Amino acid sequence: MLVKQYFVEDLAHSSYILAGDETCAIIDPRRDIQLYIDEAKKLGVEITHILETHLHADFVSGHIDLAKETDATIYMPESANSSFEHIGLKEGDKFKIEDMEISILETPGHTPEHISYLVKDLSRGDEPVSVFCGDTLFIGDVGRPDLFPGRAEELAKKLFNSLHNKLLKLPDFCEVYPAHGAGSLCGRAMGAKRTSTIGYEKKYNEVLQIKDKNEFIKELTVDMPPAPDHFSRCSAINAKGPTSFEDLPEMKIMPAEEFNNAYDNDVIVLDVRAYDAFGGQFIPKSLNIDFGGNLPTFAGWVIPPDKDILIVAENEEQAKETAIILRRVGLDNIIGYLEGGLYQWSNNAYDVDHIKQISVNNLKVLLEENDNIQLIDVRAPGEYAENHIHNAINIPAPDLRNKYKLLNENKEYVLTCNSGHRSSLAASIIKQNGIYNVSNLAGGMIAFNKKNS
Q1: 379: closest CA among 445, 431, 436, 433?
Q2: 3-class SS string, 220-253
Q3: What does the pLDDT look like over 320-347, one tens digit per residue?
Q4: Are residue 444 and residue 369 in the same domain, yes or no?
Q5: One-character DSSP codes across 134-180
Q6: CA-CA distance, 176 to 328, in Å (whole number)?
Q7: Residue 232 · residue 148 · CB < 8 Å
Q8: Residue 289: which domain range?
Q9: Pick from 34, 78, 27: which is nearest to 48 by CA?
Q10: Is residue 386 part of a domain?
């Protein structure tokens, strides 16, 4: 029995190969599946099983393409009512992969249909050695139950039962393999470690120390971080079955003239260059989501899924990687990439815009000399509450898609986040909507705190 983990940094998503001598299962696969095919070939095993713990909310799964490429069978929670060919699983179901016996625990709470895969290595013993628990139990945290409107308390009750009456009854030595790690919004405060054991989590996972059910429910239904827009979309896509990669539109490499002809108000121009490069010059009405920031989360959050997307990037390799990342969160309508970037765009005499980047030293002077400036902190409310610049108001970056209407076009705005990534996104949203006197605080709160430490 061999377990190998694959971690997607920006999504903080973990998928797994569970391999025997000749065959293997892929658990909670990401949408771009070639690495599993390559890894199985390297291990000398055949992919025969595709195991999904639940309908993932934060990414589009690769189960359809993987089944198509390998003829492997998809296993899903029966209660997900998925519309593609699969084997539906419920509590107590069992199947074998060589010497491994996999049994099913229904562990709802993060989602209504969630299951966990409990693995026994019968070549060594008859006790459970591993549990692939999806988004029920994390390292140092548990899955959030508030993603379904009006059902948070109901799901929190189910989550308490799934944890305390099922998963925590497993042997202390049982290995815990979750579907996410630190940085994912499927929980609130996951640890950086990517695997654990039941015994360690029993002892050190703070949420699991809450033994009172009512207190547990309150803890997981109050002051939770906001959920991105694509969370509800991805669940539905995964239930229906994602469009196969080979059926998606090809991303064309477009010279500046062709790019300009394709660019209109119904198309999203996504510029993934670093925020400082974007600030220097960009195509008017572009949306900036820095490739070095959390591109998949914020793209899924703010880009309408029905819009065509044109990409501006540092180079073709970055553009191709961006297309893969966008498709991981269900943004499939990627039609082109600007060949030669802003250099060629400018040489063709097309319009450009810019956003002023200011340092924390500039900010201090500006605030002292100009009472028409409003500082907007675009981080999440919890980050803002922990530490913010005096007199800054808090409007999270995605909320500015609507809350820009509250801004006065005659005022000057300086936007800040933790580093400059989200505030550049926020500034691009504001500019798209006719608020032109906007600047980005370079270095954000990291620079501000260093200056004032």
Answers
A1: 445
A2: CCCCCCCCCCHHHHHHHHHHHCCCCHHHCCCCEE
A3: 999 999 999 999 999 999 999 999 999 9
A4: yes
A5: ETTB-SSSB--S-SSTT-HHHHHHHHHHHHHTTGGGS-TT-EEEESB
A6: 25
A7: no
A8: 248-347
A9: 27
A10: yes
Distance (Å, whole) CA 52 – CA 64: 11
Whether residues 255 and 226 share a domain: the answer is: no
Q: What is the pLDDT of residues 45-80, one digit of tens each?
A: 999 999 999 999 999 999 999 999 999 999 999 999
Residue 225 lies in a domain: yes
What is the rounded average pLDDT of the residues 253-259? 96
The total of other beta-carbon atoms located within 10 Å of residue 154's CB is 15
Using CB atoms within 10 A of its CB, is residue 211 exposed (0-12), middle (13-18) or buried (19+)? exposed
Domain boundary among 289, 321, 347: 347
Question: Within this chain, do residues 361 and 328 fall inside the same structural domain, yes or no?
Answer: no
30 bridge partner residues: 61
- pLDDT at 260 (0 to 100): 95
Helix (H), strand (E) at residue 296: helix 295-302
Say if 243 falls within a structural domain: no
pTM value is: 0.94
The number of domains in the chain is: 3
